[in-house]
Amino acid sequence: MGSLFRSEEMALCQLFLQSEAAYACVSELGELGLVQFRDLNPDVNAFQRKFVNEVRRCDEMERKLRYLEKEIKKDGIPMLDTGESPEAPQPREMIDLEATFEKLENELREVNQNAEALKRNFLELTELKHILRKTQVFFDESVPMVYKSTSTYSSNKYRRYLQMADNQNEDEQAQLLGEEGVRANQPGQNLKLGFVAGVISREKLPAFERMLWRACRGNVFLRQAMIESPLEDPTNGDQVYKSVFIIFFQGDQLKTRVKKICEGFRATLYPCPEAPADRREMAMGVMTRIEDLNTVLGQTQDHRHRVLVAAAKNLKNWFVKVRKIKAIYHTLNLFNLDVTQKCLIAECWVPLLDIETIQLALRRGTERSGSSVPPILNRMQTFENPPTYNRTNKFTKAFQALIDAYGVASYREMNPAPYTIITFPFLFAVMFGDLGHGAIMALFGLWMIRKEKGLAAQKTDNEIWNIFFGGRYIIFLMGVFSMYTGLIYNDIFSKSLNIFGSHWHLSYNKSTVWNNNYLQLSPATSDYEGTPYPFGMDPIWQVASSNKIVFQNAYKMKISIIFGVLHMIFGVIMSWHNHTYFRNRLSLLYEFIPQLLFLVVLFFYLVLLMFIKWNRYAATNAFPMTEACAPSILITFIDMVLFKNSKAPGKDCNIYMFAGQSFFQTIFVLIALACIPVMLLGKPIKIMQARKLANEEVQPITGASDAEVGGMSNGGGSHGGGGEHHDEEEMSEIFIHQGIHTIEYVLGSVSHTASYLRLWALSLAHAQLAEVLWSMVLSLGLNKEGWLGGIFLTVVFAFWAVLTVGILVLMEGLSAFLHTLRLHWVEFQSKFYMGHGYAFQPFSFDTIIENGGAVTETE
Q1: In whole angstroms, what is the distance from residue 335 CA to residue 18 CA?
Q2: Predicted confidence band at 728 (pLDDT cuts at 50, 70, 90)?
Q3: Mind listing the pLDDT tens digit for each residue in 395-422?
Q4: Which residue stretches, if any, does this entry annotate as coiled coil (predicted)?
């Protein structure tokens, strides 16, 4: 349990492994996840390391698996995930895995290529079928009918053709190219139109028409018809809408130009016979080939599906195995080879308490590899700051993440996370206090906790949901604490619960109550029973619309200051634990003591005045201790700091709340002022004196410099990130740093105390928003009667519920969460928490697999 309050003690160890046993030993350490390896080859290029070929082979296997995964997802085939993590395969098994993946990839690529070729052939036949159908309609139409439906881009050519027909006085219905045609002995006997037919994407058709018109100067005749059903693109499987077109022209020059335009627009041209009999014969042949292709395509898809289903059963396990192999070889690349090339040497950070567990894992790896040489794990001495490792479970993990988001704790520094488990949801609840809203939040958190195994197995990529699920225990505790403060405020959806019965009673008759908007109940009369409501606020305040906010403002403002001052004092006390642990005597004497005194004599005294005022002044007391003579605490505090004499709150009232108050206040302010120069100059002066004394003693003997002896000032702390080292700092830098720290603390004590008033402000805003939603939304439905009123109430309630959850629970909850986070990061942790460490990142298969196999290299 001690590691919860401070990070684990770490040790830097040197590991010697026989080359044959290195793979199995690293595999066992990866399953354990308690060792962070250091790179012993920082200057060696990644492509020049010993196991670079094995890493490349793993990359190639991963590529093939990703290809298989993409194809499986494309077909919508479910992949079997047992949740189990298979052991890392032996190196000799890599060959079998590579052969399996190579076979699957080649087979799948061959099937895909065949399927694509078949689909392309099927598309061509389908387009040809539509061309034969649509062009048959074109050829069957009479010449005048064709001319009436021509495009505006081709009108000149059609007019010339009409004029020819008129000059020849041919009234018969001639086919467009018809076999009967124009008689040879008539004028215009050499007039014969050529044509091309094809298919083009529908979205390119307008531009295609314009280009034909401009390039051919209107000397072509274009007819087009849409293909109603979309066609599948064999390359990417997209559905494409296309149109059939036929272009009539005269002469080879126009034919060449038309074909080039078709090629530029990626239109597909198909042969189309002139004779109707030939077209019908070709259409029958196309239909037969389409039926045969459908059969072959179905068989191809079935074979592809069987291959993918078989691969889907093992794909997850294959991914895990390949990623483990890759991680092992990547880790082995961090090791050094000894001169004999038979032993691998590694350096690693390990938790001190887990050394025996690590040695057992190394022994298992050696036995599994069949090696007879046991591994050697030696602890090394170092002055380097170790990584910070805080053991967490599924409950404390989210709270630790909140702390680490501010900054990873320095090595062996006090960890705020265990205290945050209580203070965070409590301060949140002070701002969010409502029994109903807290119950909604607590139930949501409880649902995620109860269903956590199933929800965790879904592994969604939705970031918002992952944040909610990761903080499920925080949400649950925030909801429970909000229910508690809601009972204290006696507030549930802006209404109150009368559990114990009000301790106030009306002494007015019914007519007085109905005819007067404002009535007053005095606690000095029989209106008040003389004893407070057993738990929380008296429900009578719910009907006190005129002074309810005034009363709650005074109450919530004072408790905000009380909680804030206690929270900050607790933070300063935490710094005492850091100073004593790191044996930092100077910081203990010249930082902790004056900081605590400054906070206590000013702001804790302010809190004491609140309790004294609550205890000594009451409406039932005799004069001058009545409520009318109660002095303002704010004015008293301001006068105290300015050394001014306070004024009596009323005639014949006492100026002070207790005897000797003026004397104590003067002493307290003088103590606070005296603490400032101690914080500012005490520590730098002591460091300067220690360096000067050390120079006088050591200089005649060894000629040591200031930098070599300056460390004596701190009394020799242990290695770690929590201690302060001034060995390399110049005195001017120390003075500047201490000045900044002192100014920040003195001014911060005032601003941080005022910052805790956000507890009061957000609590008031939350209560008022809840009351507005009730009075302006839900009360409208409650005032309606009859069956129409029931329907109206249902609609209004649904609207009110959506606004309550969306605004008061989600948005207000997020706002209160962020304000609580700021109070912990700035007001609380700034008193003791440095956050200059770096996180312990062990070699762990679970982490690697969870992150998708992204193994990062530390250069």
Answers
A1: 12
A2: low
A3: 999 999 999 999 999 999 999 999 999 9
A4: 51-128
Q: Is the dihedral of CA 337, 343, 347, 348 positive or negative?
A: positive
C-alpha triplet 270, 272, 278: angle, nearest 5°: 140
Angle between helix axes 472-489 and 463-470 (nearest 10 degrees) is 60
Q: Which residues pair with 222 in a beta bridge?
A: 247
Q: pLDDT tens across 520-529, in order?
A: 888 888 888 8
| Bridge partners for 198 per DSSP | 245, 269
Across residues 827-831, what is the average pLDDT?
94
Domain residue extents for the chain:
395-499+535-831
DSSP labels for 169-212?
A: T--S---SS-SS-S-TTSTTTT---EEEEEEEEGGGHHHHHHHH
Q: Are 722 and 408 in contact (CB under 8 A)?
A: no
0.90 exceeded by pTM: no
The token duo for 38 is: 């250091």
User: Phi and psi at residue 233, in whole multiples of 5°?
Assistant: -75, 120
| Edge-first strand listing for the sheet containing 194-201 | 221-226, 242-249, 194-201, 268-270
Q: What are the tokens at 748? A: 């911060």
Residues contacting residue 349 through CB under 8 Å, at least 6 positions apart: 10, 11, 12, 13, 35, 36, 38, 386, 387, 840
| pLDDT tens column, 39-74 | 998 888 888 888 999 999 999 999 999 999 999 998
Give the whole-angstrom CA distance, residue 146 versus residue 757.
Answer: 85
Provide the angle, in degrees to the nearest 10, between the axes of the packed helices 731-755 and 683-702.
160
Which residue bears the tokens 């312990």? 840
pLDDT at 756: 96
**Rg, C-alpha atoms of the chain:** 43
* Owner of token pair 């909680």: 563
Q: Which residues of 724-739 are buried (b: 16+ CB within 10 A; e: fewer)?
A: bebeebeeeebbeebe
Q: Helix (H, G, I), strand (E, B), or coil: what is residue 231? A: strand
The confidence band for 726, taking pLDDT boundaries of 50, 70 and 90, is: low
* Cβ-based neighbours of 527, under 8 Å, separated by 6 or more: 504, 505, 506, 507, 521
CA angle 498, 499, 501 (to 5 degrees): 65
Residue 373 pLDDT: 85
Q: How many separate helices (H) and strands (E) can be counted in the chain?
A: 31, 11
Q: How far is CA 36 from CA 26, 346, 379, 844, in A?
A: 11, 10, 14, 9
Pair type for strands 239-240 and 231-232: antiparallel
% residues pLDDT > 70 (the chain): 89
Report the chain's terminal Cα–Cα distance, integer Å.
Answer: 35
Angle CA 776–778–780, to nearest 5:
70
| Mean pLDDT over each residue of the chain, to the nearest integer | 86
Residue 189: is its pLDDT beyond 70?
Answer: no
pLDDT at position 408, please?
A: 94
- Return the structure tokens found at 82: 């047992």
Q: Give Cα 135 distance to the centre of its chain.
A: 59
Percent of the chain predicted with pLDDT > 90: 57
